[in-house]
Amino acid sequence: MNLIFFGIIGSGKGTQAELISNKFHIPIISTGNIFRRNIKNKTKLGIQIEHILAKGHLVDDEITVQVLKNELKKTNLKKGIILDGFPRTLHQAKMLEHILSIDHVFNISLSEHEVRTRISNRRTCKCGATYHIKHNPPKKEGICDKCKRKLFVRDDSKPAVVKNRIRVYKNKTEKLIEFYKEKKILININGNLAIKEVFKQISDKIIELKKK
Fold first, then answer.
1. pTM above 0.90, yes or no
2. Alpha carbon of 169 to those of 75, 95, 101, 115, 176: distances in Å?
3. Does residue 56 register a pLDDT over 80?
4. Could you tell me which CATH number the domain at 2-110+158-211 has?
5. Number of H helices, E strands in the chain
6. Chain segment 95-151, per-residue pLDDT in tens
7. Which residue numbers are catalytic?
């Protein structure tokens, strides 16, 4: 079963993709994680991507598609794949059709108010650990549980950048909803609920689909 998880920033698509991956033992490819790994390691690609993301823009289609192709070559697709963070544009979605056949697309919807609330409460550590002040707080306020370093707000989580990311999502990524709806593989999920409730919605739906 090849699945896509997408939604507006703060929708929890990455969290849900990981939870579903663990439950159903389906490998996951997160372009966002690959980008962040390159940024952390200060690779040539990482430096290029960091400048793009810091402004709230999307990484170029060609770069993103090549990153995905490279990752697919290294992945065992016997049980299918979960794509998290790809595609993000209509052009990427059309390019994907020549690379991989998609069975279902989970669109995790979220109100703009909830987006701003969630993103403003995000905290990150240099070691890669992420926290949420309300839903997943560190044991000691402002300090990473793993390495004890001070947490910070990522550039792409700052208000001005979040505003631009929402605009970019509406202008580019939202077009995917209609694209996959026409293909009759779009499944809408209420992302305003708690993590466990969203996870149950998706899990139940996958179990239902597997029975067909």
1. no
2. 28, 19, 24, 12, 10
3. no
4. 3.40.50.300
5. 9, 7
6. 999 999 999 999 999 988 888 888 888 899 988 788 888 878 999 999 999 999 999
7. 13, 88, 122, 154, 165
Secondary structure element (H or E) that encloses residue 68, with its range:
helix 61-73
Cα–Cα distance for residue pair 113/100, rounded to 1 Å: 35
Phi-psi region for residue 89, left (φ > 0), alpha (ψ -120 to 50) or beta?
A: beta
Question: 59-88, pLDDT tens digit by residue?
Answer: 888 888 888 888 899 899 999 999 998 898
Tokens 């990524």 sit at which residue?
173
Residue type, 201: Q
Do 127 and 146 form a contact (C-beta atoms < 8 A)? yes
Of 118, 130, 111, 108, which is closest to residue 4 (Cα–Cα)? Answer: 108
- Residue position matching structure tokens 């402004």: 55
CA distances from 48 to 9, 91, 125, 134, 168 (A): 21, 21, 21, 32, 19
What single letter denotes the amino acid at residue 137? P
Determine the Cα–Cα distance for residues 190 and 109; give it in Å rounded to an integer. 5
**174: three-class secondary structure by DSSP:** coil
Domain ranges of the chain: 2-110+158-211
Whether the CB-CB separation of 133 and 140 falls below 8 Å is answered with no
